[in-house]
Specification:
Elements (H helix, E strand, L loop, with lengths): L41 E6 L14 H10 L4 E3 L5 E3 L2 E6 L5 E6 L4 E3 L5 E4 L3 H10 L21 H11 L34 E5 L2 E5 L21 H7 L16 E7 L3 E6 L13 E6 L3 H10 L5 E4 L1 H8 L9 E2 L6 E7 L11 H8 L2 H9 L3 H5 L22 E2 L2 E2 L4 H4 L7 H18 L5 E7 L6 H16 L4 E7 L5 H6 L6 E7 L27 H19 L4 H17 L3 E6 L4 E4 L30 H20 L1
Parallel strand pairs: 1-12, 18-19
Antiparallel strand pairs: 2-3, 4-5, 5-9, 6-7, 8-9, 10-11, 11-12, 13-22, 14-22, 15-20, 15-21, 16-17
């Protein structure tokens, strides 16, 4: 997965009656908090990692996109339920097969400098300039992939490939790439020239922008909230050259805030943009971010001292804080984050060392009863208590695509027929039944017991080691050590994905995927041919081959439907249920969000599980105190109810 961080389906075009634009968030009566009475509404926080660049067209690092999310607006916006709203595009249309999308740009929106002085007007060409910059390999943008992920903008990859070759050492006339490396696409022979004008992003006039795609894309709106689709003023970009985004002075702003002060490893100050087109929905006047390398250790106490207004509570602090009657009523979880889905997977093409008996593992993993025995022996709620000891149920996911991620036809994707009755797979009795069947079948196939199950973990990931040993205890206690031998081993702290998962050096492991766009198609990608997750397309077993072919046909059928979102979602739900029923993957959890003390109401902010949406401060208000756990629970239930009603309407 290539994702930044990261919804409800944008392409379903849910009701535009946004809770933040046309209605107030009404907090539970027992949790009413009065807004700050200060003349200026200032939000203060610590940050522990300094940004390396303010060039939003080049980065997808979380701490850097926090700034770009609040200083640059996109074509579309979101409300607190995930409905798509007009942003810098007032409206949009598409052709019948959704390969051409036309956006009508809002007139009178200003680009301003770091002091709030108007520089120019936002026009359609700003997105053309952005596409040319991002897809020019010379700039080495980390987010170029969004032009070819799911939605494929015509000519974008061809231009990237050409410029990648042009600036490589393979081009005798080229200067070489800045890092002196060659791209995989670079070739010894000369590549035919591809011009930036061949990218399918055109400005018909100052206020009409057209994207042309290589294939139908009903979810195209949802890719527009990534930084690679943010606009940039061509004239300013040319004036600043390589200095663009080096600091706050070498930037222009059209979003809710301006970075008025940026002193690396000291502070960042964001002030409300005086020329912002939607200033009525910006309730924070000033954001003061202070750099502190020990922010995670200090921020709780600093909140209590009145120094800051937001603090993340680390897991090692949580218990002592929850046992302190003076502060326990200030702590609550963050809003559940379904930008990532976690699932346990099996490796069908093991590449690990002989000591772990890869050939024996091949026999076992291709036996469905063996896979089912492991899946049914895992107690997800017990494991997730390591991350959320008070409400592990908030994290549990029984589907690969998280709930509240996408919706069509007025209902959540996980409520479509094929998925609505999916339940937690934990069933020790069924695990034993499957184990006994597997023993009989595998013995006939020539397998030996116990089957060695290599389960590596990343030692730098919080609680993953503890989770792995807990999984070992669960599986071996239910299934017996004469059946399986779970081998928990640490992988490298750096390069874990490339050296372990992508190299196939595991048998059974927790994996994750983050959505690149707001459509269930994105959650088929880890299982497609050529994936670096489970490699089931490489299995030589006839039964597994047949399962892969059957699922692939189901996925392709769903992908081919672009003009009927309900039919599309129903087909994707059937394909996903197939993966679950055959224990190809076992759904586990959403992102393991932590606990916070915050003067913001998390249910007021924009909501989407893709792009930079969740990092925005637009629509947020500062309150006098942080809500308690009980107040949060009621707010969450109320938000779910309002969202369900909103979807139906």
């Amino acid at each position: 997965m290539k994702k930044l961080i990261a919804v409800l389906c944008a392409c379903s075009l849910l009701s535009l009656s946004a809770c933040n634009q046309n209605e107030e968030i009404v907090m539970n009566e027992s949790a009413v908090i009065s807004e700050s009475s200060e003349a200026e509404h200032v939000f203060r926080m610590y940050y522990p990692a300094e940004v390396s660049t303010l060039n939003y067209l080049n980065t997808n690092a979380y701490n850097e996109t926090y700034l770009s999310a609040n200083m640059i607006d996109c074509l579309v916006d979101y409300d607190c339920y995930g409905n798509v709203l007009p942003g810098l595009a007032e409206s949009w249309t598409h052709n019948d097969d959704m390969t051409e999308w036309t956006f009508h740009i809002r007139e009178g929106v200003s680009w301003v400098d770091y002091q709030g002085n108007v520089y120019d007007e936002v026009t359609a060409d700003d997105w053309v300039a952005s596409a040319e910059y991002v897809n020019n390999a010379k700039h080495e943008s980390e987010c170029q992939y969004m032009y070819t992920s799911g939605s494929v903008v015509t000519g974008a990859q061809a231009y990237y490939d050409y410029t990648s070759w042009y600036y490589s050492d393979d081009n005798p006339q080229g200067n070489g790439k800045p890092d002196g490396k060659q791209d995989e696409v670079s070739q010894k022979e000369t590549l035919p020239e591809v011009l930036p004008s061949e990218i399918g992003v055109k400005a018909l006039d100052d206020y009409t922008l057209v994207y042309t795609l290589e294939q139908p894309c009903p979810f195209f709106l949802s890719v527009l909230c990534y930084s690679s689709y943010m606009p940039v003023n061509r004239k300013f970009l040319e004036e600043t050259g390589d200095m663009f985004g080096r600091d706050n002075k070498n930037l222009l702003y059209n979003g809710a805030f301006i970075v008025s002060t940026w002193i690396p490893q000291e502070k960042q100050i964001l002030v409300k943009n005086p020329a912002y087109w939607d200033s009525g929905n910006v309730f924070i006047d000033r954001v003061e971010r202070e750099y502190n390398l020990d922010a995670y250790a200090l921020q709780g106490d600093m909140f209590l001292n009145g120094r800051i207004d937001y603090a993340e509570i680390s897991s090692d602090q949580l218990e002592s804080w929850m046992n302190d009657p003076q502060i326990q009523n200030m702590i609550h979880p963050d809003r559940p984050d379904n930008s990532y889905s976690y699932f346990y997977t099996f490796n069908f093409d093991p590449q690990f060392d002989d000591e772990y008996e890869p050939e024996n593992w091949k026999l076992a993993v291709n036996n469905e009863n063996f896979r089912q025995s492991l899946v049914h022996a895992i107690n997800k709620t017990e494991l997730l208590a390591l991350y959320n000891p008070y409400h592990a149920e908030y994290l549990v996911s029984d589907t690969i695509t998280p709930k509240e991620f996408a919706s069509a036809g007025g209902k959540d994707y996980t409520q479509y027929d094929a998925l609505k009755d999916v339940q937690d797979n934990f069933n020790p009795e069924e695990a034993v039944i499957c184990r006994d069947k597997a023993v009989e079948e595998l013995t006939q196939a020539g397998a030996t017991f116990p089957v060695k199950v290599l389960m590596p973990y990343n030692p730098s990931a919080l609680n993953w080691r503890a989770e792995s040993f807990a999984v070992e205890e669960q599986l071996e206690s239910v299934l017996g050590t004469d059946f399986i031998d779970i081998i928990v081993e640490p992988g490298p702290e750096s390069g874990f994905l490339s050296s372990v998962r992508r190299s196939g050096k595991y048998a059974f492991m927790r994996c994750n995927w983050g959505a690149d766009y707001a459509d269930p198609q994105t959650y088929t990608e880890p299982f497609l041919a050529g994936n670096t997750y489970i490699f089931w397309d490489l299995s030589e077993d006839s039964t597994t081959k047949a399962l892969f072919q059957e699922w692939s046909a189901m996925a392709e059928k769903a992908i081919s439907v672009y003009d009927d979102s309900q039919k599309r979602y129903a087909l994707f739900a059937e394909a996903e249920r197939f993966l679950i029923d055959h224990a190809i993957a076992s759904p586990y959890s959403i992102e393991t969000e932590g606990y916070t003390i915050s003067k913001l109401n998390p249910f007021e902010s924009e909501y989407a599980s893709i792009g930079i949406v969740l990092q925005k401060l637009k629509f947020c208000k500062i309150y006098d105190y942080s809500m308690s756990m009980e107040e949060y629970e009621q707010e969450y239930l109320d938000w779910q109810k309002r969202r369900e009603e909103n979807l139906k309407s």
